[in-house]
Amino acid sequence: MTVMTPRTIADATAMAAAHPDAHLLTGGTDFMVEVNFNHRKPTDVISLSRVDELRQWSLDRAAGKVFIGAAVVYADMEKGELAGLVPALAEAARTVGSPQIRSAGTLGGNLGTCSPAGDGLPVLAALDAVVHLSSADGDRAVPFADFMKGPKRNDRRPGEIINGVTVPVADGFQGYAKVGVRNAMVISIASACLAVRSGRVSIALGSVGPTVIRATVAEEWLSTAGPLDDQVAREFGSRVAAEARPIDDHRSTAAYRRHAVGVISTRLLERSTGT
Ligand SMILES: Cc1cc2nc3c(=O)[nH]c(=O)nc-3n(C[C@H](O)[C@H](O)[C@H](O)COP(=O)(O)OP(=O)(O)OC[C@H]3O[C@@H](n4cnc5c(N)ncnc54)[C@H](O)[C@@H]3O)c2cc1C
């Protein structure tokens, strides 16, 4: 196996153009599992972990936006200034794997794999994140809603690397909740991110459909539901659950997933008002 180690995005995209069959790798926490199970047999690998530009995040205070490089690791999202700017991402990052996984795993890799169970993805959906991609032919920006196409399918074109995402700085409550078969080191069987943005609630669901799902009908209902009380919070949870499209699989049943995503949505809404 040939492993290429570019130091800049320009070098990485040039290598990707010259080696169209090469596999991209950043932390390797998904990729190496596939190699170990013989699901991938790469001959050429482009490792992005030493591309400094991909490991940076930056704040555009005037625009109220944060750019997070694709190779920023979960350990850097879960605390510090970035955690204060995008609290839901910090909460999601804290639920990922173990400290070892969080030291290596990245948002770029979560987007590259594009599993409906990826913990970063409901946050990107709830915040209407924009995914930035680069290739030897130039750059493009794709709304997250258009980027995720299906289970482990995304809009990345051959020769493109994901260079990062842009998300808005929090201007209200943000929260993330995940249900799994254990409390730690667990892939979610249902998850949700709720964000209050300019006074309006947005909510995105993970692990309950072929893609991450924005529960837009429930969002719309809540915007006219009046003052929040227990009944409104429970009704919101039921309406969110109705928009889930879960399946039975080795991790859970569709019925339990639908129930669980309704419960965590109600709780997130209650948390958003401090009740
Ligand atoms: C023990 C264990 C526990 C885990 N727990 C969780 C969990 O709780 N929640 C969760 O969401 N995930 C979990 N994962 C999965 C994994 O850690 C995450 O999906 C992580 O975000 C992957 O990032 P990475 O940098 O390691 O990706 P890699 O493994 O390097 O790459 C993953 C995929 O993305 C592509 N890719 C990587 N970087 C780029 C880029 N910049 N541009 C384009 N394509 C790219 C690769 O080609 C590959 O297809 C776990 C994995 C393990 C092994």
Overall geometry: globular
Query: What is the domain tally?
Result: 2
The CATH class of the largest domain is Alpha Beta
Query: Which residues form runs of ≥5 with pLDDT under 50?
Result: none
| Spatial extent as radius of gyration | 19 Å
Order of helices and strands: EHEHEEEHHHHHHEEHEEEEEEEHHH
Which class of secondary structure composition applies to the elements?
A: alpha+beta
Strand content of the residues, in percent? 15-25%
Bound molecules: flavin-adenine dinucleotide
Count, helices: 12
Helicity level: 25-40%
Cα-to-Cα separation, first versus last residue: 55 Å
CATH architecture of the largest domain: 2-Layer Sandwich
Number of strands: 14
Largest sheet: 5 strands, antiparallel
In CATH, the topology of the largest domain is named Uridine Diphospho-n-acetylenolpyruvylglucosamine Reductase, domain 3
> In order across it, which strands form the biggest sheet?
4-5-10-6-7
Mean pLDDT reading:
97
